[in-house]
Amino acid sequence: MPLTLWLSLAAICAMGAMSPGPSLALVLRHTLGGGRVPGMTAAIFHALGVGFYALLTVLGLGAVMVRFPELFQLITWFGAAYLAWLGIKALRAGRGGALTPGAVATTPRQAAKEAVLVALGNPKLIIFFVALLSQFVTPEMSLLAKAIIVATAIIIDGGWYVLVAVGLSHSRVLPWLQRHAHWINRITGVLLIALALRVVAGPII
Questions:
Q1: Taking the model in full, what pTM does it have?
Q2: Under 8 Å between Cβ of 157 and 46
Q3: Which residues, in sequence order, are CB contacts of 68 under 8 Å at separation 6+?
Q4: What is the rounded CA–CA span in Å between residue 65 and residue 58?
Q5: Could you read off the pLDDT of 94-105 as tens digits, one per residue?
Q6: Spatial separation of the C-alpha atoms in residues 29 and 24, rounded to whole Å
Q7: What is the average pLDDT across 177-192?
Q8: pLDDT at 156 over 90
Q9: Alpha-carbon distance 28 to 43, whole Å?
Q10: Which parts pass through the membrane (predicted)?
Q11: Maximum distance among all alpha carbons in the chain?
Q12: Residues in contact with 149: Cβ distance below 8 Å, sequence separation at least 6, in sequence order
């Protein structure tokens, strides 16, 4: 995979990871409720769940593209609509949303369990990855290239939420995030809507 193409993939994965939602609320809750270790545990196990969905999507996407091109196109447009909906939701989130969860006592084991359940219990991740990976997957793509795509999704998702957990372990970070939550949500919303338009426009390859 060319470096420029991988950088595009990494940027899109980062936008998906940084978008406000239940995953961010999960990491915040366990970090605030148990400290750095439960927060990082939640981040890592959530990334493994994301990787599972990314793997399923990559392995099945090429076959769908070849056998059912019209169905694949419909799925892609539906995925683009979902990305746009996420963007609109972020724009409307204001100062609230995932940045104001209630902190409860927690443990690393509980954090790992809940992180996997949040990831695997969110079938919308499949829609996200279909819209995302349709820009990069081709029917003739090698297994190594597919593995790179899945690994990129895991590392970026896990890396982002680990940084969130580490940052939130410092008491000054969360108040700053809460003060600037409306700008974070607005920027994320605009980027997600732009991504939806890019998906509709066609593959990057």
A1: 0.69
A2: yes
A3: none
A4: 11
A5: 655 555 555 556
A6: 9
A7: 70
A8: yes
A9: 10
A10: 41-64, 71-88, 115-136, 143-163, 183-201
A11: 53
A12: 1, 9, 54, 58, 133, 136, 137
